[in-house]
Amino acid sequence: MSDKLFIFDTTLRDGEQSPGASMTKEEKVRIAKALERMRVDVIEAGFPIASSGDFESVQAVAREIKDSTVCGLARALDPDIDRAGEALKPAASGRIHTFIATSPIHMERKLRMSPDEVVKQAVRAVERARRYTDDVEFSAEDAGRSEIDFLCRIFEAVIAAGATTINIPDTVGYNVPEQFGAMVGRAIEGTPNADKAVFSVHCHNDLGLAVANSLSAVLNGARQVECTINGLGERAGNAALEEVVMAVRTRQDVFPCETGIDATQIVPGSRLVAGITGFSVQPNKAIVGANAFAHESGIHQDGVLKHRETYEIMRAEDVGWSANRMVLGKHSGRNAFRSRLQDLGVAFASEEELNAAFQRFKTLADKKHEIYDEDIQALVTETNLEHSVNERIKLVSLRVCSETGETPEANVTLWVDGEEKRGSAPGGGPVDAALKAIESIVDSQTELLLYSVNNITTGTDSQGEVTVRLERGGRIVNGQGADTDIVIASAKAYINALNKVVTAAERGHPQGPEL
Ligand SMILES: CC(=O)SCCNC(=O)CCNC(=O)[C@H](O)C(C)(C)COP(=O)(O)OP(=O)(O)OC[C@H]1O[C@@H](n2cnc3c(N)ncnc32)[C@H](O)[C@@H]1OP(=O)(O)O
Ligand SMILES: CC(C)C(=O)C(=O)O
Ligand SMILES: [Mg+2]
């Protein structure tokens, strides 16, 4: 019988360490629920000592998630561990993940501790974590540049102290597959009582080798892989969950283990994470990129039509793309729409949310001949966003005049706290004019850090999906909007971000902040 390969998702912790990818508590809970539907074994929800927001997010995820283990990260320090233990109290199944660096460079230059002190502190941390839970993971940070004998020594000590998972991170993405796999194999062989723990890996993608290194480790005995949706994470990111899962599943002739992942939830999960973080997925990204199952060239199309496996090693439907070619358009009804959402693995919290999405679908169908899966996912994201933020500002109408040789001019009407307000402004281009017209009304005092437009599908009637990132008082929020008119999509994204800024500020001022 094949072994179980545990999937430990760290999108909400290491993924959030991507500059600009910070998420609100509500967004983290939504992603955690998607991960639970995907049947991820462990969800690392955050680093509770990092901030009260992170503590509350881990606590909220711990409260909501029943079928996956919820994990909190802690340095090998008593206050970190106590904070993680506290945040995880509501969890049906909670894990404390404690770590300390073991490479010479980190011990000498960063921690300024001797190897003996590091072992002592690691043991103390694991023992303390065991006061809160039987499920304790220990990570040797920068294991990829650590000495193997020292790793075996510290692993033996923390297993004796009660660690049940031993993680070997390639923290700086320095390793190459053959060498990393051999290292993991040697660590397992050289650690007394290694059979009392699950060995895990956590690979970074600095050389583009995170997935390859993780898979090589699996071939050498690792039975947990730490990864993130879309490969999000510190610097160049972590191993991509979707790639690890599908490699193991597709090459069962190579891997002696199986994951428990429901792969049909992968594409919806990927879309959700991309929408919330504003980190869009490149079209040629394996598994979840828009082109991952698309065939453009004639010889390939001919082959696929004759026999799909000539050019496809996986089925699009197996990872959550809709294989159903039933066209959705303006004549489609609620049942077809609901059924397509089910195929796409999209769940709504209420009938009201479904109806809101259906209304958006009908409006879009009036403008666009054919509605693709990506369009539906975009409008679902928009519906969810509307329900998750307090909408004090709403777009009523937008008119932009743009003519060769003339300065574009925008006129906008907004509802602000139930009152209709109008504004106008010139701009460097139509989008600039539209955003300035909005600002002429709200004067938000925010700074625009990022503006990006993504074509959701092909064709000139495609929807543009816009992400904007705003900063006010050190708080950074992302806003998204989609429309067949990219100026309107931009205004929607900007207003979505402004509502988040307001919602965030309201937490500090219950009467509502000035706009
Ligand atoms: C590889 C990784 O991904 S590790 C996780 C990285 N993630 C993060 O750092 C995000 C959250 N971090 C934070 O919010 C902050 O860094 C905090 C709250 C954890 C700590 O903040 P501060 O107390 O201000 O410390 P600061 O970040 O400046 O420095 C880190 C300190 O922790 C020490 N440290 C680092 N790792 C560990 C560890 N695993 N165990 C014990 N101490 C550690 C460092 O040596 C340094 O100690 P020093 O202040 O005595 O020099
Ligand atoms: C905290 C650890 C596991 C980490 O993120 C790393 O080493 O990259
Ligand atoms: Mg990491």
Write the layout of secondary structure elements.
Blueprint: E1 3-4, E2 6-9, H1 25-37, E3 42-46, H2 52-64, E4 69-75, H3 78-87, E5 94-101, H4 104-111, H5 115-129, E6 136-141, H6 148-161, E7 165-170, H7 177-190, E8 198-203, H8 210-219, E9 224-227, H9 241-250, E10 257-258, H10 266-277, H11 298-306, H12 334-343, H13 351-367, H14 373-388, E11 393-401, E12 409-416, E13 419-426, H15 430-442, E14 447-455, E15 464-472, E16 475-483, H16 486-508
Parallel strand pairs: 1-10, 2-3, 2-9, 3-4, 4-5, 5-6, 6-7, 7-8, 8-9
Antiparallel strand pairs: 11-12, 12-13, 14-15, 15-16
Bound molecules: acetyl coenzyme *A (ACO), 3-methyl-2-oxobutanoic acid (KIV) and magnesium ion.
Give an account of the 3D structure.
This protein is α/β, with parallel strands linked by helices. Helices cover 40% and strands 20% of the residues. The strands form four sheets. An eight-stranded parallel beta barrel has the order 2-3-4-5-6-7-8-9, surrounded by nine helices. It has a three-stranded antiparallel β-sheet with strand order 11-12-13. A three-stranded antiparallel β-sheet has the order 14-15-16. Helix 7 (177-190) links the parallel strand 7 (165-170) and strand 8 (198-203). Mean pLDDT is 91; it is low at 509-513. Helix 5 (115-129) runs parallel beside helix 6 (148-161), helix 6 crosses helix 7 and helix 15 packs parallel to helix 16. The relative contact order is 0.08. The protein folds into three domains: 3-277, Alpha-Beta Barrel (TIM Barrel); 322-386; 390-508, Alpha-isopropylmalate synthase LeuA, regulatory domain (Double Stranded RNA Binding Domain, 2-Layer Sandwich). The site of 3-methyl-2-oxobutanoic acid has 10 residues, from strand 6 and strand 7.
